[in-house]
Design brief:
Elements (H helix, E strand, L loop, with lengths): L1 E5 L5 H9 L1 H6 L8 H13 L3 E8 L2 E10 L4 E7 L8 H12 L3 E6 L3 H9 L2 E7 L2 E6 L4 H11 L2
Parallel strand pairs: 4-5
Antiparallel strand pairs: 1-2, 2-3, 3-4, 5-7, 6-7
Amino acid sequence: MLVLRPAEFQDWHELMLWRNDPETRKNSMNNEVVSLSDHMKWLQRTLNDPSRELFVAERDGAMVGTVRADHRIDEIELSWTVSPQHRGKGVATEMVRQAVQRYAAVYATIKSDNKRSIRVAEKAGLVLSDERDGVLTFRKVPDVGAAGAENVSKAEP
């Protein structure tokens, strides 16, 4: 079973390794290597920022990925990273699906050549809404998928 928990400062080492992994960097909007100093500052700011939530995904007690939720004006922007050792095991789909279910309005921006994240977004219930300059935007559409159907049936008599 996969569980999302709030990130803690002591998670810094794994988060930095995942962020600087070559595949993660290739698929990130910012593909530069992040220094230890910059990473520590970023993590501290992130943990103290009320408009940002950072979750660590754990499976069987092991850290396997992370999901960030940035609160924008009327939507939540999601981004995610999976530990290199846990890629291809359904981790991303499950953690993004859980994150999508937490919020009413969600979107994610993904590079058009990042096929894995595109599949994850689609499996998590996000739908392509825009494409610009090689970047795809996927959005949660109300009443789509099992979670949407459950919410409708509970809300209506």
